[in-house]
Design brief:
This protein is about 40% helix and about 20% strand. It is built from 11 helices and 12 strands. The longest helix is centred in the N-terminal third of the chain and has 17 residues. About 25% of the residues are buried.
């Protein structure tokens, strides 16, 4: 019986290795931040997806399990313990990376293709391998340590505009943003798209009475006609602003000041909608 059990254990181990489950990496700034994402890990496991947790120990070091990973900076030797991978090698073992929160500094580095921090190198490596990077969109741009030290929760408006600009740049490179509560669902849709494709809307068989009742309902209101022009007095035209305005107040022409910056993504959206851009004379 002992030999039979041993053979059974070996066969199970071989089968488990052959049926290796996909895995994602969650990257956290704080060693306790993962406690709020327990439901995410349960959802991933339900759909047959494993996960690992990485905790930043500073801008250039982090912990992945029992291994400490260090990044000494551009042009310098990468130091790590005996079995830890270099930061740029970390994404090789995963289907994608999930970053619930990112700060202004790392967003800027990643958007500009700069290395030197754990986060920027991991984002760069993941995108180069054509794997997905998911980041929470409902974020302040300030690290938890900075919020605690400065006793503030949000960036001032100029820095907030800069942060939004870097987020749009990251989207151009392939990074996707989603509400923090939906990051696990988004990861599942990336790895196992068939789960969501099979969610077909059930067919409805209407009776003649139902058809008559539907015909008796008042017709839906016609869409609001697009206004001829809209004036924007801010300093940065973002894709989020364009989307919101087109949904609430459609327009055909956008008037801005000559010093106003239009993000690349916002400009593409305006061109696709056939919206002209007019520059106002300086007063």
């Amino acid at each position: 019986m002992e030999i039979k059990q041993m053979v059974e254990a070996i066969v199970r181990e071989i089968l488990n290795q052959q049926a290796k489950r996909p895995k994602v990496l969650y990257l956290f700034y704080d060693s306790t931040a993962h406690e709020a994402f327990t439901d995410h890990f349960i959802a991933l496991n339900i759909h047959g997806i494993d996960h690992d947790l990485m905790f930043l120990d500073g801008e250039a070091s982090c912990w992945l399990g029992k291994h400490k990973i260090e990044c000494a900076g551009r042009g310098q030797t990468i130091a790590s313990d005996e079995f830890a991978p270099a930061p740029i090698e970390v994404p090789l073992a995963y289907e994608g990376i999930v970053i619930p929160e990112i700060d202004l500094d790392n967003a800027a580095r990643a958007a500009l293709g700069m290395k030197g921090t754990i986060v920027s190198e991991i984002i760069f490596s993941t995108l180069v391998q054509n794997k997905f990077v998911l980041i929470g969109e409902d974020i302040s741009g300030l690290k938890k340590a900075d919020r605690r030290t400065l006793q503030t929760l949000t960036l001032p408006t100029p820095y907030r505009n800069l942060f939004d600009y870097y987020k749009m740049e990251l989207q151009m490179y392939g990074v996707e943003f989603a509400p923090s509560k939906q990051l696990a669902e988004k990861a599942v849709s990336k790895i196992r798209p068939e789960i969501f494709e099979n969610r077909e809307v059930p067919e409805t068989h209407e009776t003649p009475e139902a058809s008559k009742a539907e015909a008796a309902l008042p017709a839906p209101p016609e869409p609001t006609p697009a206004s001829s022009a809209i004036v924007y007095e801010g300093k940065l035209v973002s894709a989020e602003w364009v989307t919101r305005e087109l949904r609430n107040h459609p327009f055909r022409s956008l008037q801005i000041g000559r010093k106003t910056i239009i993000s690349a993504l916002a400009q593409d959206m305006l061109q696709d909608k056939g919206i002209t851009i007019e520059y106002l004379a300086e007063r």
